[in-house]
Amino acid sequence: MVNLNKVERALIEGNAALIVVDIQASTFIDASEVRSIDNMPGYRERMEAARGAIDVARECGIPVIFIQEVHHPSGVDFGRELDGDEDVHCLEDNPKTALAVEQMDVRPEDIVIRKRRYSAFFGTDFEIYLKGLKVDTLILVGGLTDVCVHYTFVDGHQSDYFCRVIEECVAGSSVEAHEAALRAMEYLQTGAVRSLDEVQAAIRALN
Question: Using CA atoms, how far apart are residues 159 and 190, in angstroms rounded to an integer?
Answer without folding.
Answer: 17
